[in-house]
Amino acid sequence: MELSKPIQWFPGHMTKTRRKLQECLPLVDIVVEVLDARIPSGSRNPDLDSLLGGKPRLVVLNKSDLADEQATRKWISWFSGQGIAAMAADCKSGRGIPQFLPMLRKTLASKIAVWESKGMGNRPIRAMVVGIPNVGKSSFINRMARGGKAKAEDRPGVTRSNQWFVVEGGAQLLDTPGVLWPKFEDQQAALRLAYTGAIRDQILDVEELACGLLEILSGSYFPLLQERYKLTENPGGSWELLQAIGRRRGMLVSGGEVNTERAAIMLLDEFRGGKLGRITLEDIPESGGSI
Predict the structure, then answer these.
(1) Do residue 158 and residue 258 come from a single domain?
(2) Helix axis angle, 238-248 relative to 206-217, nearest 10°?
(3) For the purposes of burial, counting CB atoms within 10 Å of the CB of 128, is it exposed (0-12), middle (13-18) or buried (19 or more)?
């Protein structure tokens, strides 16, 4: 699907954020990249690979409680094949969080061995946590940290400056502002971000957005739509499906027409809240592909 008006994003602090990240890299041993498990590719910053160079990395697939479990396992395996450690987590419930420190130590095992050989076995691991807005980066830090809280709100880009947090078990986390690219080259990736709420709905046509989401869900996830909205059959196109959903929810206006805007807002809210079931919007790349 293509929106009638392309999605663009022009954050004025983008250059400043890149510079801050590069300035902080020498201060840390590893970079922790927090992604949305529903869109592991779409929630990555495409500039990050070049920014980080050869710095070790650990990927945290957050919001895994909302994602398809089988798809998450495939993504973890795919990252491993790329030489990047990855784990699933749900920062709201804390599920998966206990494996973070062991994975951090495993990823840095050779470096820790060098520290121990030099009598620096008690040296804390210093990790920089990065992620685009709304992937749950601050919620992850809040789960891990003691002696302070990172500001976390359910809207894009509330972290404004770099902060250090001490973690139980001998680690320090450096929080950084959310990073997003200045313009979207890949409109499909931009759309998937919009479906999850990483882009404000106010700048988009919610009905177009809902129809795009339904194009994806009407495939292998259609049984979830059927169960949630008591649909007897797939009416065909995404617009017709949106109307059917609105009709089943009684969202009618005078003349019996469906209020498709209300239906679209409801559908997006229920998808983002996990009420439709566990859904992943992206498949792993084909053999040899990258993200």
Answers:
(1) no
(2) 100
(3) buried
Distance of CA 235 to the CA centre of its chain: 31
Range of the domain at 214: 205-272
pTM: 0.87
Residue 16 or residue 43, greater confidence: 43
With bands split at pLDDT 50, 70 and 90, how would you rate the model's confidence at 129?
Answer: very high
Same domain, 58 and 141: yes
Has residue 201 got a pLDDT over 80? no
Tell whether the model's pLDDT for residue 123 goes beyond 70.
Answer: yes
Three-state secondary structure of 88-157: ECECCCCECHHHHHHHHHHHCHHHHHHHHHCCCCCCCEEEEEECCCCCCHHHHHHHHEECCCCCCCCCCC
Residue type, 201: D
Q: Let me know whether 53 and 139 are in one domain.
A: yes
Return the pLDDT at 145. 83
Q: Contact, 173 vs 129, CB < 8 A?
A: yes
Tally of domains within the chain: 2
What's the token pair of residue 100? 């973070």
| 171 and 48 both lie in a single domain | yes
